[in-house]
Amino acid sequence: MDVDIHRMTPTGGDNGAKRKFPTWLIPLAGYAISIACLVWVYKGFDWHEELLRLKDTSLKWVLLAIAADILVYVVQGIRWNTLLRPVGRLPVSKSVQAIYIGLFANELFPFRPGEVIRCFLQARWAHIHVTVSLSSAMIERLLDGVWLILGFYAASFFVELPHILLVGSRILALLLAVIAGLFILAVYYHKHARRLIHKSKWADELLQLADAMYAMANAPSFYAAIALSLLYLALQVIPIWAVMQGYELDLGIGAAAVVLVMLRLGSIPPQMPGNVGTFQALAVAGIRLFGYDKPEATGFATLLFVVVTAPLWIGGFIALTATRMKLDDIRTAANEHK
């Protein structure tokens, strides 16, 4: 919590307060970037001409994209349950429900609070500590990040990726190295980690985190989770490729993989809810790498955004309704248990 810190003189005088960090600057920067991206993407865009083309998009490819996108989150739910197997059990359907509610929250709120919300719901339904659920999400992101970095460097052999993504990949690799180091400390030096943690003021929370990571990483199911992480990432290529076919772009699975890597890397910085703006800009940039002009790339990006976002809204709303709770109430409860 931000507080004013006052320096008092020996006589009781006030030398002035240190100014608070203006926390509104971070969301403002995110919104500014997103709006700038939208302006760049749609400046000069011929809506009439491209809407006619969008209308003629083959329905079978759109349905394939939607089905594949749903399958992505089913696989994520299976992977989540696989990771948590040593510490808690929950039906896959409930894990998928928690994921969709988290995704729905990400579409409505900035800074992706859905990660905390889904972990809170998983912990509540599986009767495990929130810290344990959060530790599983951290492992998920670590596995996703490793596969994403490998995919990024594989894609760089086929096309020249924008310099900003090269910088982003290096930052991500550095963050992953730090997280991986902490993970290794918790897993392979478990006893030493416990001694270090005992000296922390958050000892109880950190001990539960370390113990959960140790249990999950040393279980045979961990290797299945690694394989499922690769499947989870690979399946995300299919909706992009299917929309390419429906929009009649002469591009293959490799091009779709390149666009996916760009979209995933671009989703890391703070931005508007649902990655509005940056999603379209990165999709446009990805398609233009393969020689297509901006209007055609913009039409594709618009269609792709609708195809992958509409199911999240519908699925998230249904999943949330099934809980008979309000999203704001879940969000508040999740923040209290972080």
Short description:
This protein is mainly α.
Key features?
two-stranded antiparallel sheet; 338 residues; mainly alpha
Secondary-structure map:
Elements: E1 6-8, E2 14-17, H1 25-42, H2 47-55, H3 59-84, H4 92-108, H5 114-126, H6 130-155, H7 163-188, H8 190-197, H9 203-217, H10 221-235, H11 237-246, H12 253-266, H13 278-288, H14 294-323, H15 327-336
Antiparallel strand pairs: 1-2
Helix pairs in contact: 1-13, 2-14, 3-4, 3-6, 3-10, 3-11, 4-5, 4-14, 5-6, 5-15, 6-7, 6-9, 6-10, 6-12, 7-8, 7-9, 8-9, 11-12, 11-14, 12-13, 13-14
Shape: globular
Compressed to H and E, one letter per element, the order equals EEHHHHHHHHHHHHHHH
Rounded to an integer in angstroms, the radius of gyration calculated over CA atoms is 22 Å
Quaternary organization: single chain
Tell me what you see in this structure:
- This protein has 338 residues and is mainly α.
- The chain has one domain (58-336).
- Helices cover 73% and strands 2% of the residues.
- The chain has 15 helices and two strands.
- It has helices at 25-42, 47-55, 59-84, 92-108, 114-126, 130-155, 163-188, 190-197, 203-217, 221-235, 237-246, 253-266, 278-288, 294-323, 327-336; strands at residues 6-8, 14-17.
- It has a two-stranded antiparallel sheet.
- A hairpin with a 5-residue loop joins strand 1 and strand 2 (14-17).
- Helix 2 (47-55) packs across helix 14 (294-323), helix 3 crosses helix 6 and helix 11 crosses helix 12 (253-266).
- The radius of gyration is 22 Å and the shape is globular.
- It starts with 5 loop residues before the first strand and ends with a helix.
- The model is unreliable at 1-17 (pLDDT under 50).
